[in-house]
Amino acid sequence: MLTVLIALGIFATILVLMQGCAAAQRLMTPRGSDRAIERLQKWSVSPESAVQMDIVRKDQLSEIPWLNDLLTTMRRFQPLRALHRQADCPIPLGMFVIGTPLTAFATFLFALAMQQPLLLALVEAAALGSLPTAYLYWLKNKRMATFEHQLPEALELVSRALKAGHAFSVGLKLVGEEAADPIGGEFRRVFEEVSMGVALPQALQNMTERLDCVDLRFFVTSVLVQRETGGNLAEIIDSLAHLIRKRFELQLKVNALSAEGRFSGIILFFLPIGVGLLLYQLNPEYMGLLVTDPMGQMLLMIGSFLMVSGAFIMKRMVAIKV
Predict the structure, then answer these.
(1) Whole-angstrom distance, CA of residue 8 vs CA of residue 5
(2) How far is 236 from 116, CA to CA, in rounded Å?
């Protein structure tokens, strides 16, 4: 019995000691706002030794540090940066900046090695060197076309949210969650900027800078004007969505009416190429003079230039903007 009492006494002593240590730890450790302040001070910047936390969004234009700094600071690359941002290309911009002159230079050396005329080598180098930029333009046009076709449905979703009594920012959030990219990502980014404290007009203006879309500018302008003058924003957005749909219908009618001209231009462009390949297959020595003889190379270059110029002019003639 005495042994049991001694064991219980030792256990109670240890328990009281542990409770006392825990109480002392709680008294010495800051709680609530004091603990938050301590954590902020731990991560804050001090003159002696600290790591600066950068929360500003930065664009990684290149994995090469000096090239990234060059693309960021030089104004001459701003149009190319805007094109790369509008195209939403996953490839860094530095790859295009480096790849363009390298492609042109390699093409020029290859043309000279094939004993082609200097002027023809320069033309080929310029043509192949412009392919990276042309690829960015193709991505941009494809993305903008998708965005324009998604815009009416997104505007109607925002209008329905406003009619249901929600705020305009909630409508932007719904589009960001429900719509597919690219319009879903762009509206979601606007909502995130507003949530982080950016003014709504500034966030909408930033979206218009990232996207080259006239209909989007109409939407942003109507929202900004309504904020200044008042009015039913839901009806304004519905009218804009209806107008965009009607414009798409008119564009389809114009494309149907101009299909004959576009098809004729395609035939006239590819007919000389097809005939030339057929004649080369039938009589290689006769058509080979266009490649081996200097005069033939000059005529081939002049003919190619005239064909490209004619195709460009015909495309401008049948491209009717609505």
Answers:
(1) 5
(2) 61
Residue 40 has pLDDT above 80, yes or no: no
Whole-angstrom CA distances from 199 to 47, 152, 183 are 33, 24, 20
Please say whether the beta carbons of 196 and 169 come within 8 A: no
Does a structural domain hold residue 278? yes
Q: Are residues 106 and 181 in the same domain?
A: no
Residue 237 sits in the same domain as residue 170: yes
* Alpha carbons 184 and 72: distance in angstroms, whole number: 27
Residue 319 carries which DSSP code? -
Asked, for residue 2, whether it belongs to a domain, the answer is: no
Same-domain check for residues 76 and 119: yes
Residue with tokens 């996207």: 211
| DSSP string of 175-207, one letter each residue | HHHHSPTTHHHHHHHHHHHHHTT--HHHHHHHH
Classify residue 47: in a domain, yes or no.
Answer: no
DSSP 79-137: HHHHHHHHHT-SS-HHHHHHHHHHHHHHHHHHHHHTT--HHHHHHHHHHHHTHHHHHHH
Are residue 211 and residue 296 in the same domain, yes or no? no
Number of neighbours of residue 220 by Cβ within 10 angstroms: 18
At 211, is the pLDDT very low, low, confident or very high (cuts 50, 70, 90)?
A: confident
Evaluate the omega torsion of the peptide bond into residue 272 and state whether it is cis, within 30 degrees of 0. no
Structural domain harbouring 185 = 147-241
The Cα–Cα gap between 174 and 156 comes to: 11
Of 129, 159, 174, which residue is a domain's last? 129
pLDDT tens-digit series, residues 85-129: 888 888 877 777 787 888 888 888 888 887 777 777 888 888 888
Q: Please report whether residue 300 resides in a domain.
A: yes
What is the total count of domains within the chain? 3
3-class SS at 214?
Answer: helix
